[in-house]
Specification:
Length: 164
């Protein structure tokens, strides 16, 4: 689909500016939810199945996700593309802004805080990990715990503090 104008902000907003697209991408990026059912049941915002199906189709059509076709009776797997992996710094900035200026919970804000503190070096490491998982890139050497594990551990720790 052709954008309404040549403005780069408009071009981005036309792909990512609806109510659900960024949240679906967030769940694939940070939640490693790659199947329709996992995206549907894992959505804390409560996305409806018809909306999710539409957004997944749009994200595939716009080149933000790929969808394998495993055959009849098997689950399709959604994978990130390079253009969606490149959104990690945007998600970090949005999370940082949201923590500062909107009401959040510790459990859900802890990943944003970790990404903000880790800065561009952490974002690059995370994007490299996503490329391995979603694009089949070679595993880069990591002198420390993978970012995906640090994000998961931080969220679990916050969840435990909130529970008790």
């Amino acid at each position: 689909m052709e954008p309404r104008s040549g403005c780069p902000i408009n071009a981005a907003v036309e792909v990512l500016g609806d109510r659900w697209s960024m949240l679906v991408l967030r769940d694939v990026i940070f939640g490693d939810r790659r199947f329709f059912r996992a995206l549907l049941t894992g959505s804390i915002e409560g996305i409806a199945s018809n909306i999710l199906a539409d957004r997944l189709r749009r994200l595939v059509d716009d080149g933000m996700l790929t969808r394998d076709d495993p055959g009849r009776g098997r689950r399709a797997t959604y994978s990130l593309t390079e253009s969606s992996i490149a959104l990690v710094p945007v998600f970090a900035a949005l999370g940082s802004w949201g923590r500062r200026y909107r009401e959040t919970t510790e459990e859900l804000a802890v990943r944003a805080e970790l990404l903000e503190e880790g800065g561009p070096a952490m974002w690059e490491d995370f994007m490299a990990e996503l490329r391995v998982t979603h694009l089949g890139a070679p595993t880069p050497p990591h002198p420390r715990e993978p970012v995906v594990e640090r994000l998961r551990a931080a969220r679990e720790a916050a969840r435990s503090r909130a529970a008790g």
